[in-house]
Specification:
By secondary structure, this protein is of the alpha/beta class. It has a single domain (about 5-285), classed as TIM Barrel (Alpha-Beta Barrel), CATH 3.20.20.140. The chain has helices at about 25-30, 70-85, 105-115, 140-145, 150-165, 180-185, 195-205, 215-220, 230-240, 260-270; strands at about 5-10, 35-45, 55-60, 60-65, 90-100, 120-125, 125-130, 130, 170, 210-215, 245, 275, 280-285. The strands form 4 sheets. The chain has a 7-stranded parallel beta sheet. A two-stranded antiparallel sheet has the order 3-4. Strand 5 (about 90-100), helix 3 and strand 6 (about 120-125) form a beta-alpha-beta unit. Helix 5 runs parallel beside helix 7 and helix 7 (about 195-205) crosses helix 9 (about 230-240). The two termini are about 35 Å apart. About 40% of the residues are buried.
Length: about 300
């Protein structure tokens, strides 16, 4: 088994739910772990009905509105400094962002991702009906008041819309509803993707959009990655070829967790992990080889 060399889902101190650990500290730790490339994916949440909850970034420990783009200027300055500092070590530092998709905000999202030279734009479904299903505190308010059928409809309708926007390079933790939904619905929630996710994967394959193998599920007590092995198989069958792997680290000790196991899963299906440069995908290789993939 080859060791994982990339972590493409890392939250530095710009994410309001992350530990106060800066970009340089993460880079030093990544090199200690034997990683060759890191992509920072600070949170961007823009749901106007949650503007007092999570429409913020953190700058020097203080919350600022995500609509004040000055935080992005500093974010890119910090990444540029890290790129320069670690270049001689052969360590790659990439500028990414994790965007919580909210239907109806496509123009706002597009404005931000087109205004800055992002390497990687990761899309995610964190909220349904303006409730954070990713949150231990908030999620019961959603799951306890919906049927499993409604959860299925809500989630996969939103996921379909997110993919069809074409705004994202890869989709994060595609079965995130498992994280806390399993407490309400038990094992039944593990199969709600059947019949719903296959056409979405076909659209992702058509667009050459990636799928993330997110390892954070293990530190939350789940038995499989996000997504599960069954869902990975469905993605492969649908023609998805671009896969990214990420720890979803929100603290230094979470960086790189279970990445080797994620790499092993990809190898089982004769897949490789991908990296991005200015939103162009290429298979990772030690020699930085690989053909670019032009998303449609």
């Amino acid at each position: 088994m080859k060791a994982a060399r990339t972590d493409y889902h890392v939250h530095p101190d710009y994410s309001i739910d992350a530990s106060p650990v800066g970009i340089r500290e993460y880079c030093y730790q990544a090199m200690k772990l034997g990683l060759k490339e890191i992509c920072f994916t600070t949170h961007l949440e823009m749901d106007p009905l949650r503007k007092d909850i999570d429409n913020f970034a953190a700058v020097n420990g203080k919350r600022v509105s995500v609509y004040n783009k000055a935080w992005l200027d500093k974010y890119f300055d910090d990444i540029a400094q890290a790129q320069e500092e670690f270049r001689a070590d052969g360590f790659q530092v990439k500028a990414g962002i994790e965007i919580g998709y909210c239907p109806g905000l496509e123009r706002e999202i597009e404005d931000i991702i087109n205004s800055y030279p992002f390497d990687f734009v990761l899309g995610a479904i964190h909220c349904l009906d303006h409730i954070a299903i990713s949150s231990m505190k908030e999620s019961p308010r959603y799951f306890e008041t919906r049927s499993l059928s409604q959860v299925r409809t809500d989630y996969f309708t939103t996921l379909k819309e997110a993919v069809e926007t074409g705004l994202f390079d890869s989709i994060a933790h595609v079965d995130l509803y498992r994280r806390y939904g399993i407490r309400q619905f038990g094992s039944e929630i593990l199969t709600i993707h059947r019949g719903a996710i296959e056409p979405i994967f076909k659209e992702m394959a058509r667009r050459e959009m990636g799928l993330e193998i997110n390892t954070s599920s293990f530190r939350r007590g789940l038995k499989e990655f996000h997504p599960s092995r069954e869902i990975v198989e469905l993605a492969v069958k649908a023609g998805v070829k671009i896969f990214t792997i990420g720890s979803d680290a929100h603290s230094l000790e979470q960086l790189g967790e279970y990445l080797d196991e994620a790499q092993a899963l990809l190898e089982e299906y004769k897949l490789v992990s991908y990296v991005f440069n200015r939103r162009k995908a290429a298979p990772y290789s030690e020699k930085r080889a690989g053909c670019n993939s032009n998303r449609k």
